[in-house]
Amino acid sequence: MTNDDLLTVARRGQKRVSKNIRPMIRSIFVWAVFGILNTFIWALVAILLSLFSRSGGLVHFYSAVPWSRIILWGSGVRVEISGLSKIDKEKSHIYIPNHLSFFDIFSLLAYLPVDFKFILKKELMHIPILGWAMKRAGHQY
User: Fold this and answer.
1) How many CB atoms within 10 Å of residue 95?
2) Are 133 and 140 in contact (CB under 8 A)?
3) Is position 86 within any domain?
4) Residue 129: inside a domain, yes or no?
């Protein structure tokens, strides 16, 4: 292999790297804008709504749902839903996400048409503003 051949191979590898880095840059941007900023804004909305709702229902439907949908949209995640008609909204249920990815939290919040509460790690409640919003929404730790 000559030096020209090695240079050609290096350039091809460089093109592959530049194609592979675009999704990474997009993810960083999405989480910087849609993740952090979106979370901060909707957490403030949740705190405000919690003043008018003891059950956390207002917080769930008017803060957590839009927050989750924006995160899913901004991340390019498509959610496929089936079986919603089998949910009896008048009965209590326990939903157990399998955490195949961290998007299951956002998917449940965005598309499960019932007001539900998460059982969280205690450490999450120490996150400024977000922790207070989750506590005011009625999530347990």
Assistant:
1) 11
2) no
3) yes
4) yes
Give 119's strand partners.
140
Task: List, in order, residues 6 or more apart from 111 with CB less than 8 Å away.
Answer: 79, 81, 84
Site of tokens 């909204």: 89
pLDDT digits (tens, 9 = 90+) for 40-87: 888 899 888 888 887 778 888 888 899 889 988 887 888 888 888 888
CA-to-CA distance for 124 and 65, rounded, in angstroms? Answer: 19
Q: What total number of domains does the chain contain?
A: 1
Residue 18 lies in a domain: no
Range of the domain at 110: 33-137
108-137 tens-digit pLDDT: 889 988 888 888 888 988 888 888 788 878
Determine the straight-line distance between the first and last CA of the chain, rounded to whole angstroms.
62
Tell if the pTM clears 0.85, that is, is over it: no
Other Cβ atoms within 10 Å of 110 Cβ, number: 21
For residue 13, being part of any structural domain is answered with no
Confidence grade of residue 18 (pLDDT, cut at 50, 70, 90): low
